[in-house]
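Risk register update: the risk of archive-format incompatibility is retired. Evidence:
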Amino acid sequence: MIREKTSQCVVISGLSGSGKTESCKYIVQHILSRSLSVETALNMKINQVNPLMEAFGNAKTYINTNSSRFGKYLEILFSPSGNVLGAQLKEYLLEKSRVISHNNDEGNFHIFYYLFAGLSHDTLVRNGLRTPSEHRYMSHNTELAQLDGARQVEYRKKFQMVKQGLISIGFSMDDVQSIFTILSAILHIGDITFIPHGANDGVRVKNASAVDKIAELLQVSSIEFSSALVTELQVTRGEQIFRERNFMQASECRDAFAKALYGRLFSWIVNGINSYLQPIQEESDSTQSISILDIFGFENFKSNSFEQLCINLTNEHMQRFLNQHIYDLENYDCQQEGIDTVDINYTDNHLVIETFLNKHSGILAILDEESRFPQATDQTLATKLHHGPGVQFPSIYAVPKDGGTSFTVRHYAAPVVYNIVGLLEKNRDFLPNSIVFVARTSNNFIIQELFRLNLNEKGVLPSSPQLHHHPNTFHVNRDFKRNEVLLNHNGRQFSPMQQPTRTLPEKSNGNTFERTGGTAMRTVAFHFKHSLTELIDKMNVCQCHFVRCIKPNESRDKSTSLTVPCVTRQLRYSGILQMCEIRKKGYPLRMQFDEFLDRYNALVLCVLPTTANDRSKELSLSSTTYNRDRSVECLKRAGIDDYKVGRTKLLFRYWHSDQLHNLAVQYEKKVNVCQKVLRGWLARRKFARLREVHQLQLVFIRKFCDDIALIGQLYKTKMDNYCQYDQKRKVKQSSQQKTEEDDEQIAKTMNFFDSILDQYLSDHDTLDENKSKI
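Archived output:
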């Protein structure tokens, strides 16, 4: 990815139970362990997500106890320097029909069994759940529905892992409880039964208690929900018309609601996971990715229905994609480079895909056409299929001798017999608007959110921008909305404890089903084809790497040894033998001329001599011609032969990769030795120069220090002389100052005595005068 600056994709394929999911886990762990990571906890996050996806998307089948019933496309995002930024998960082709029906030796999705083992007794009673076998959606496999001691402990442990995983990725405890409540409601929906009512083949709900419990769990009006199951309100020219459903239509409405509820809940959880795994940094145009595709494998059961038809068609596309990259692109690339193509015989399955996807006479086209006719039956569908693809593609589509409700398709892996009974019911999956209106008026915010948006063309609930921004703000808006006053469709306010009344939107075309945006109603086959198209488009823009998982035996016992016929059959029909042959005869290693010179730079530098004319040749010739001449000359001097030179590429045999690698490693070692010797010599020469400079610096420093010391001594002598002179002068000045002070003191003393004497003489004169007067 870093070298070629191209996003990569790892396609993991193989039979069901061959280890594709486990291989996906190992590949993800290896990629994350070998790369630098900005999101350091991404590996831990993905490990927390895996139990969730397996619980909600895996189930027990006839040949695999933990079979993936959906396609998982994990896209790991990288910066241009190879740092892991985050990841994104996409779901494809979830087998929603397994919720309502499956073969007797298979099971429902794991999460339903975990529910009975993990919920407390009080919660089970509050949700109205009994033993698994008492609920119709889980009563197909009575053995699996019996939760014995060991299975109870195992399921309880996995339930706690699921619960902890939901909390870890950002769901609140209220959200987790709501999820388990919705799952409980789905089981109760399957328990609804109908009885005839009225004279127009109308029906009504037989067990009203089940409807009341569902209304309580989903927080909708019991009366409106019961009415939505058996009647449809249409508005024609401003007039409201109630149309009653018959028994089959009411049953289809009930099962469609259960499938829609589970499918939308699954998509909603995946959207939450993407908010948890999304990059911390903003994505740029230079962001690249490594994607891992884990999709269900080829299936051939005792009874194959609509699910196996879609799964096997997906595997046909994967095989076709592999053929195009291995065989068709091989021949195309050789033709573009002017090289003779290699004649390889392989099984081209484009006719099988055309049998399914032909626009007018394909199996899915006829199935969609019949699904839109209310009066269509399994027999009418069988008749059209036998006269459509059965006539146009007789080498692929085999019509039964009795013309009954089955047909055989010769897949690339093996012929598969499909049962037509139930195909129409499973393909219709139409969700009436009356049910959607009831769900949108629920007081449960998650139910509102699940049905607020319509499904996209791939049948997946789009991510809501109001809920999924960043892992740190995952549920901010949701908690805010829960505290707001709810509004119904007409804008009238009602409190969360009140039941809103159901009203039709102002603009209604009278259609009771979700539409594609045109006039055609969306079917499961419609969503399937768009999902498959998007998946193939994503793979086409990446450089793909293929991992083929081989199932060792037909038994589910892991201790059983490898069975040669089983492995040989898989190697034969998967095209592994043809790939080995084309690798042997063809040119699997191809490189541009400049890419070869850059990748094996050490080999080029060591083998090709450097001359003064190289620069002039480079300027006179085009870059392609110059690089081609240098590449060919390098290979000639290196002793490489039996390769082809194309117009823009070099084409090598499979063994050339090892030869070039060994030569490159050999010359790189020699270059490394030369570099070590040269670096050592340069380092020693540099050290010698530095030592010489150091010695000169020491001499200059010593001379400088000596000069400084001599000058300092001279200055010291002069300073001593000056100090002695100053000392003598100070002594002389001090003696002179003392003499002056003594003279001044004597003068002061004499003046003092003079003043005393003058006073005495004055007093004496005064006394004499007084005496004379007397």
